């Protein structure tokens, strides 16, 4: 990677104390973190993943389907477990058997019927989703939330992941999935650095040892992260990795 520029130096200084106890793995969101606003893969993020995935596990954690997330892990050569459907699915290794967290499914299937009675929306990838229902941002999220809780559904909630709205299990998220991945890798969630951009990243921010929000994250998401990056989208992701490396805060394979 090229030399770190001057604007990173303050961030590097903040990260220096972590040199004593370097992080063992990275967990990153995909949309809005490795991609640009139009969802195209960000060149600086692509380069950073290529450079670092050989040296430290990079776990992709997405609200997208397993099929999508697994394929992204192949083309980015992360060669590590992946998290899909906002934590509903954990794939321990590329050709492994998925762990499916879906105890709330009966309630979710009832809730989507109730939502359909009150709102117009398009369901995404229904043929491919097992634990999470994703739909278009054509409904009022607050009204939908009130309808769901007012209808007595206690096991599910609604999260706005910026690119889609998701009906998810209340006790299943990228943070709970991070704990499952940590167990698979035999390390603590606190050994992870988390990087993300949206509401569906907040639980993994809390679960990880250190969290970064990319500069494009909304304020309520930035507030939940330990560090807010100056750079947006994939340039923010690259900024996080470069500054961690520069500070010696990552345990990298030679
Ligand atoms: O599926 C979405 O809505 C967003 O996906 P992400 O979690 O990779 O940002
Ligand atoms: Mg995102």
SSE diagram, text form:
Elements lengths: L8 H7 L9 E4 L14 H10 L5 E4 L4 H10 L6 E3 L4 E3 L7 E2 L4 H14 L4 E2 L8 E3 L5 H10 L5 E5 L4 E5 L4 H12 L6 E5 L5 H6 L2 E4 L5 H4 L4 E2 L4 H14 L8
The chain binds 2-phosphoglycolic acid and magnesium ion (MG).
Please, could you describe this protein's structure?
The chain has 254 residues and is α/β, with parallel strands linked by helices. The chain has two domains: 8-100 and 172-246, 3-Layer(aba) Sandwich (Rossmann fold), CATH 3.40.50.1000; 105-169, Hypothetical Protein Ta0175, Chain: A, domain 2 (Alpha-Beta Complex). It has helices at residues 9-15, 43-52, 66-75, 105-118, 141-150, 174-185, 202-207, 219-222, 233-246, and strands spanning 25-28, 58-61, 82-84, 89-91, 99-100, 123-124, 133-135, 156-160, 165-169, 192-196, 210-213, 227-228. An eight-stranded mixed β-sheet has the order 5-4-3-2-1-10-11-12, sandwiched between helices. Strands 6-7-9-8 form a four-stranded antiparallel β-sheet. Helix 2 (43-52) packs parallel to helix 9 (233-246). It is globular. The two termini are 15 Å apart. One of its GO terms (molecular function) is magnesium ion binding. Catalyzes the dephosphorylation of 2-phosphoglycolate. Substrate binds at residue 174. Keywords: Carbohydrate metabolism, Hydrolase, Magnesium, Metal-binding.
């Amino acid at each position: 990677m090229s030399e770190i520029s001057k604007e990173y130096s303050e961030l590097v200084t903040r990260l220096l104390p972590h040199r004593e106890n370097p992080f063992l793995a990275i967990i990153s969101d995909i949309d809005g973190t490795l991609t640009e606003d139009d969802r195209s893969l960000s060149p600086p993020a692509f380069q950073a993943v290529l450079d670092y995935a050989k040296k430290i596990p990079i776990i992709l954690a997405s609200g997208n389907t397993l099929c999508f997330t697994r394929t992204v892990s192949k083309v980015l050569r992360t060669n590590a477990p992946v998290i899909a459907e906002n934590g509903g699915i954990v794939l321990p290794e590329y050709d492994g058997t998925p762990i499916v967290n879906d105890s709330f499914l009966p309630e979710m299937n009832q809730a989507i019927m109730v939502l359909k009675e009150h709102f117009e929306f398009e369901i995404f990838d229904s043929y491919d989703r097992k634990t999470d229902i994703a739909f278009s941002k054509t409904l009022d999220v607050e009204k939908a939330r009130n309808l769901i809780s007012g209808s007595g559904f206690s096991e599910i909630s609604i999260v706005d992941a910026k690119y889609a709205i998701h009906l998810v299990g209340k006790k299943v998220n990228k943070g709970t999935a991070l704990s499952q991945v940590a167990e698979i890798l035999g390390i603590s969630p606190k050994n992870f650095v988390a990087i993300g951009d949206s509401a569906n990243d907040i639980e993994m921010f809390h679960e990880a040892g250190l969290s970064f929000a990319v500069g494009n994250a909304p304020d309520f998401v930035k507030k939940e992260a330990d560090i807010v990056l100056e750079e947006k989208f994939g340039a923010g992701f690259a900024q996080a990795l470069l500054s961690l490396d520069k500070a010696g805060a990552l345990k990298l394979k030679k």
